[in-house]
């Protein structure tokens, strides 16, 4: 695979990027505006990290009905000591982006080069940080398994992990792998984390979306009619942010291989609510299935959830925390000053990477 190396220590500046929030089953309020994020101050003495842009082939995504490429873009951030310590092996943190932005955009939104270097300079142990791209024709895979979109859950938990372990000097065991995600990526971290505790050893959910089932009656007026007018994939690209999010959710959670060209079922069709589709969407809500995975969650050395105090997702995040507390699953939960995206870079530098530094297994020296 071809790789391009870029030495970087500073972020990309305050880029205006799409807010990464999808509300499942909804026309509930969606953050649709382009946003700017607050970069933390550059840490004095931070050493350069190395960014490699690679492609990873995923057998799990092959043959999907939407035509999503199985050759996925992936950003790999190598720590400052990687080249100068050729015998050293490192833990890996897999970081999942949100809806409507890919890995490249999220890297800019969290000022990844700067915040990763800053975290190391402030004392976090050096890790490899991997950002896979899971954007689709409808702007997001929901990190789920679907014949329509492809199996992005297996892409992250199996294909990507195997590739990184084969091509980089990793500590190839679950205790040395962390999983984090923001918004749709936070949903992905919760879903993949619950189902694949045999792969990852520590779990961090940042402002996770889509945790609870939603009533299709919450959809805004005219949503069902607008979606009914979509006859081609090209039509879908002309829809509003929120309506495209509904198509992404349907493609992930209610695929229909007998229904071209979109190959999906919507919860409201021809003005009538479809209980079978509503049930499928509800079954993909972590607050609906978390009780089945308590044993898996108890395998993690540490689990963390955080969310801004001005983020409409904070109530569901608190519910997930409460469920884990009720079952005795060790976890931490923090509501910090901020909205859905404003302070995520600082959180990534000063909370996420230090969390993994404390809770992943490093190579003994």
Which key terms come to mind for this protein?
alpha/beta, Rossmann fold, nine-stranded mixed β-sheet, disordered N terminus
Give the SSE string.
EEEEEEHHEEEHEHEHHHEEHHHEHEH
Tell me about the largest β-sheet.
Answer: 9 strands, mixed
Gyration radius, rounded: 20 Å
Count of helical segments? Answer: 12
Oligomer: single chain
**How would you write the strand order of the largest sheet?**
1-4-5-7-6-10-11-14-15
CATH architecture: 3-Layer(aba) Sandwich
How much of the sequence lies in strands comes to 15-25%
Termini Cα gap: 32 Å
Instruction: Give the helix/strand class.
Output: alpha/beta
Give the helix level as a range of percent: 25-40%
- If you consult CATH, what is the topology? Rossmann fold
How many separate domains make up the residues?
Answer: 1
User: Low-confidence segments, ≥5 residues, pLDDT <50?
Assistant: 1-34
Look at the structure and give the CATH class: Alpha Beta
Per DSSP E runs of 2 or more residues, the count of β-strands stands at 15
Name the overall outline. Answer: globular
Average residue-wise pLDDT: 89
CATH homologous superfamily (4th level) name:
Alpha/Beta hydrolase fold, catalytic domain
């Amino acid at each position: 695979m071809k790789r391009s190396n870029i030495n970087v220590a500073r972020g990309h500046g305050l880029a205006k990027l799409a807010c990464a929030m999808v509300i499942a089953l909804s026309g509930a309020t969606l953050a649709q505006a382009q946003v700017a994020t607050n970069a933390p101050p550059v840490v004095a003495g931070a050493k350069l990290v190395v960014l490699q842009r690679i492609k990873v082939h995923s057998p799990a995504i092959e043959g999907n009905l939407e035509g999503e490429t199985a050759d996925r873009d992936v950003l790999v951030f190598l720590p400052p000591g990687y080249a100068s310590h050729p015998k050293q092996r490192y833990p890996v943190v897999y970081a999942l982006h949100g809806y409507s932005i890919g890995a490249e955009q999220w890297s800019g939104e969290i000022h990844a080069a700067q915040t990763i270097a800053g975290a190391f300079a402030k004392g976090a142990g050096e890790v490899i940080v991997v950002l896979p791209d899971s954007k689709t024709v409808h702007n997001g895979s929901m990190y789920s398994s679907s014949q329509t979109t492809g199996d992005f859950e297996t892409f992250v938990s199996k294909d990507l992990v195997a590739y990184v372990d084969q091509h980089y000097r990793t500590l190839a065991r679950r205790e040395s792998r962390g999983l984090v995600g923001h918004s749709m990526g936070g949903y992905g971290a919760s879903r993949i984390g619950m189902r694949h505790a045999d792969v990852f050893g520590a779990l961090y959910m940042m402002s996770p979306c889509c945790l609870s089932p939603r009533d299709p009656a919450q959809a805004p007026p005219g949503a069902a009619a607008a979606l009914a007018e979509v006859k081609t994939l090209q039509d879908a690209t002309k829809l509003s942010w929120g309506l495209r999010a509904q198509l992404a959710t349907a493609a992930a959670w209610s695929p229909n291989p007998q229904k071209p060209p979109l190959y999906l079922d919507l919860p409201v069709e021809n003005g009538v609510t479809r209980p079978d589709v509503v049930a499928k969407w509800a079954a993909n809500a972590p607050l609906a299935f978390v009780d089945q995975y308590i044993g898996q969650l108890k395998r993690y050395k540490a689990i963390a959830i955080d969310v801004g105090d001005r983020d409409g997702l904070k109530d569901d995040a608190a519910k997930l925390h409460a469920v884990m507390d009720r079952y005795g699953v060790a976890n931490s939960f923090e509501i910090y000053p901020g909205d859905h995206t404003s302070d995520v870079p600082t959180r990534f530098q000063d909370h996420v990477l230090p969390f993994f530094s404390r809770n992943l297994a490093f190579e003994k020296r």
